[in-house]
Amino acid sequence: MPEGKIVKALSGFYYVKTDDNLYQCRGRGLLRKNKINPLVGDHVVFEKSNPGEGYITEVKKRKNELVRPPIANIDQAVIVVSATQPDFSTLLLDRFLVLIESKGIDPVVFITKMDTINPEQQDVINQFKTDYEQIGYTVQTLSTKEPEKLFDVINQFKDKISVIAGQSGVGKSSMLNAINPLLKLETNEISESLGRGKHTTRHVELIEINGGLVADTPGFSSLEFSEIELEELPDCFPEMSELKSECKFRGCMHNKEPKCAVKLAVKANEIPAYRYEHYLQFFEEIHDRKPRY
């Protein structure tokens, strides 16, 4: 039986792309019976019925999935933050990074509007860029005066399924429209419900950009840590995860425990103090979360 990837879901139909064709499919009753809900990004097996149509019979194992937008098997999240309007915030960036790390997705960070700030502010942001690069993240700065830098952006998408994340007004849509004018994204539509946890009813679609697929809806419309358990949090900070074997206590939460390698690294300026402060803030937030029943 043929296999393919779901690139669009709309009104109960799943559009499955194979190497040479696109099939409009429905899910077999067996999937519903087993409570399997196919998602955009799923690798599926289907049987053909009429020309260009078929029925999905199997959904292959997923490596990850998001609830908002409902999409599976994401390789990377492109986080777009701006130098100004809205102002650059390491706290907001760290929220995105923790959510993305918790899902096992690779993050790539773009800082836009670098040409709209003064040299002193640029130095500050370049220092933050260095901090995050030392942790191991890919961070690139973008200026509207350097359209050639869009090639750096385009190259990030090749052979990957990507979601775009970032708060409203940072330039996500403008950036994607410059790469692929067929997207015609409205420049204010993305992430308007950020933090309010609203569901958007738009369908999800994967659009081809430079040999990769990009979700046309924003990732993480809610930035709450509702799906992250306290024990998982240290591993969402790669520089802390790296040091956990050096802590005196196994399962150290790098909070009040003595002889903690992470706290020593913060003291020695090997981990930026603001990253550790954000860790403690997120720790409290998850710790004080109301239990789910």
TrEMBL record:
Cellular location(s): Cytoplasm
CDD domains found in the cross-reference section: S1_YloQ_GTPase, YjeQ_EngC
Domain of life: Bacteria
Major localization listed first in the record, in broad terms: cytoplasm
Group of enzyme by EC: hydrolase
Amino acids binding GTP: T112, K113, M114, D115, G166, Q167, S168, G169, V170, G171, K172, S173, S174
Pfam families: RsgA_GTPase, RsgA_N
Cofactor: Zn(2+)
Residue ranges constituting the EngC GTPase domain according to the UniProt record: 72-221
Residues that, per the record, bind Zn(2+): C247, C252, H254, C260
Family annotation (SUPFAM superfamilies): Nucleic acid-binding proteins (SSF50249), P-loop containing nucleoside triphosphate hydrolases (SSF52540)
Start and end residues of each CP-type G domain: 63-223
Entries under InterPro entries matching the protein: G_CP_dom, NA-bd_OB-fold, P-loop_NTPase, Ribosome_biogen_GTPase_RsgA, RsgA_GTPase_dom, RsgA_N
Cellular component terms per the entry's GO annotation: cytoplasm
GO biological process: ribosomal small subunit biogenesis
EC number(s) given by UniProt: 3.6.1.-
Keywords associated with the record: Cytoplasm, GTP-binding, Hydrolase, Metal-binding, Nucleotide-binding, Ribosome biogenesis, RNA-binding, rRNA-binding, Zinc
Record's cofactor remark: Binds 1 zinc ion per subunit.
GO molecular function: GTP binding; GTPase activity; metal ion binding; rRNA binding
The protein's assembly and partners: Monomer. Associates with 30S ribosomal subunit, binds 16S rRNA.
Purpose: One of several proteins that assist in the late maturation steps of the functional core of the 30S ribosomal subunit. Helps release RbfA from mature subunits. May play a role in the assembly of ribosomal proteins into the subunit. Circularly permuted GTPase that catalyzes slow GTP hydrolysis, GTPase activity is stimulated by the 30S ribosomal subunit.
Protein name: Small ribosomal subunit biogenesis GTPase RsgA
Natural source organism: Aquibacillus halophilus
Encoding gene (name): rsgA
